[in-house]
Amino acid sequence: MDEDAKVYVISVAAELAGMHPQTLRQYDRLGLVRPGRTRGRGRRYSARDIQMLREVQRLSQDEGVNLAGIKRILELEAEVRAVRQQVEFLRTLLDPGRRVFTADPTGNVVADRRHPLAPQPAPGRRPRWVPRQLVAGPTPRRDG
């Protein structure tokens, strides 16, 4: 079954989570767990919602975190998940270890040989990107 399918009525969800239905209503009002709604505005919970209810209960009872703290924890966990997804997406765009640019000895950004074309500077302005082939002389080594 799909973990996100909103199939459980509040009484069943409360029993599965080991809570009173009124507690689920309070958590919904506070935004801790957002169940789906039927046309008649009845709440429908998913398996993922029930897992979240259990986590809220654990944080509250076992860790002693108040509901405002739990809400903040859940928000931060959601942000972390979103950032991780974004990082994974960005990793798919770039090959591991691939350079897009390098710098010459003076600190000017130069195009990498895999990206030989560089943006053209505005008229009358010094180029910020210089193709590597145009950089004069060998690159001195920096001993760290």
pLDDT < 50 runs, ≥5 residues: none
The main pleated sheet reads as: 3 strands, antiparallel
Biggest sheet strand line-up: 1-3-2
Helix proportion of residues, in percent?
A: 40-55%
Query: How many separate helices?
Result: 4
CATH architecture classification of one domain: Orthogonal Bundle
CATH class of one domain: Mainly Alpha
Task: Report strand %.
Answer: 5-15%
Distance between the termini: 57 Å
Oligomer: single chain
CATH fold topology of one domain: Multidrug-efflux Transporter Regulator, Chain: A, Domain 2
Mean pLDDT: 82
Element-level helix/strand string: EHHEEHHEEE
Counting helices, strands and paired strands, the structural category is alpha+beta
Rg from alpha-carbon coordinates: 27 Å
- Strand tally: 6
Overall shape: it is: elongated
Description of the molecule:
The chain is an alpha+beta fold and 144 residues long. The protein has a domain at 4-92: Multidrug-efflux Transporter Regulator, Chain: A, Domain 2, CATH 1.10.1660. The protein has helices spanning 10-17, 21-30, 47-61, 67-93, and strands spanning 8-9, 36-37, 43-45, 101-103, 109-111, 129-131. The strands form 2 sheets. A 3-stranded antiparallel sheet has the order 1-3-2. Strands 4-5-6 form a 3-stranded mixed sheet, with no helix packed on it. α1 crosses α2 and α1 (10-17) crosses α3 (47-61). The model has no long low-confidence stretch (mean pLDDT 82).
